[in-house]
Amino acid sequence: MMTFEEIQKTLKNYSIGIAGAGGLGSNCAVALARSGIGKLVIADFDVVDKSNLNRQYYFVDQIGKAKVEALKENIARINPDTIVVAHNVKIEQSNIEDIFAHCHIIVEAFDVGEMKKMIVETVLEKLPKTPIISGIGMAGWGNTNSIKTRNIDNLYLCGDETSEVSETNPPLAPRVGIVANMQANTVLELILGK
Fold it and tell me: How far apart are CA 65 and CA 47, in angstroms?
């Protein structure tokens, strides 16, 4: 066991990459900042939209602002000791290595299945020593006990692995928040142990 001060002393030495600043990424980043992580490297090209406020860590007065800049502001208000490096870019196979090369762990936080697949495959191939934590299966509500974490080598999957987002099965704050916090908790387990 460790005291909170001991935990923060350890976490301040770590840099975590977050690919995507939506429901998973914004909530995971906030959880890590509250825990005392030293540096967050966050990449996303989107802007805050009113439709995001049901599950993402943004506020009404941030609508229209770049998500990475809004998230950087929010984290500075929560924990000014966490350094946030914001990349307002679309993540592609060609820039993943440059953006996240110095991160100890990468959190995949995309909405689209093809993007999730692309970053996981790229990280496993080009940054094979870097663990990647992916969120998969968090749409809808209820059925909390189906959400779990599964490990395959350097890949960690958080979610129920089945519930896909659709018009009739939207992503809502409770399940998205659970998975985002599971991703943050997995980061802490990898750094601090169980």
Answer: 5
Evaluate whether 144 touches 172 at the Cβ level (below 8 Å): no
Give me the helices (H) in 36-139, please. 67-78, 96-100, 113-126
For the chain, how far is it from start to end, CA to CA, in angstroms?
9
CATH of the domain at 95: 3.40.50.720
Of the candidates 33, 35, 40, the residue with the CA atom closest to the CA atom of residue 85: 40
Structural domain including 166 reads 4-192
- Binned at pLDDT 50, 70 and 90, residue 172 comes out as confident
Distance CA 185, CA 161 (A): 18
CA pair distance 42, 19, nearest whole angstrom: 6
Residue 151's beta-bridge partner residues? Answer: 156
Of the chain, the percentage scoring pLDDT greater than 70 comes to 100
Q: Hey, what amino acid is at 44?
A: D
Q: What is the pTM of this model?
A: 0.95
3-state SS, residue 58: coil
How many domains would you assign to the chain? Answer: 1
d(CA 59, CA 125): 37
* Amino acid, single-letter form, for residue 136: I
